[in-house]
Amino acid sequence: MRGAKEQTYRYESVYIIIKKQTLPEQIIGKIAAEENVEPENLELQLQRYVSTDAIQDLANHRNDAWRLQFETPNHVVEITGNGTVLIDGQ
């Protein structure tokens, strides 16, 4: 192939990292949404009202036939084994 030019292609890799939120992070996110603030601006320490380690242990449990309800000063939080997080029933 006379006169043919060599073509070089440059590909850039794009990596997308999707971090799955822990159940305690989901709870904080839902409470923050209820209060119309960003989660990092929420003035609530979840650990003061429930063991976040216990919540995560429940979330990691093979059996999803469980339900946990607890209260914070302004909300009633209910979580279930299928991943549902309800704040004040919603």
Task: Explain the layout of strands and helices.
Blueprint: H1 23-34, H2 52-60, E1 67-71, E2 76-80, E3 85-87
Antiparallel strand pairs: 1-2, 2-3
Structure description:
- It comes from Halorubrum distributum.
- Residues 21-88 form the Halobacterial output domain.
- InterPro entries: HalOD1 (IPR040624).
- By secondary structure, the chain is of the alpha+beta class.
- The chain has one domain (23-87).
- It is built from 2 helices and 3 strands; from the N terminus they run ααβββ.
- It has helices spanning 23-34, 52-60, and strands at residues 67-71, 76-80, 85-87.
- It has a 3-stranded antiparallel sheet, with helices on one face.
- A hairpin with a 4-residue loop joins strand 2 and strand 3.
- The longest helix is centred in the first third of the chain and has 12 residues, at 23-34.
- The radius of gyration is 22 Å and the shape is elongated.
- The chain starts with 22 loop residues before the first helix and ends with a strand.
- The model has no long low-confidence stretch (mean pLDDT 86).
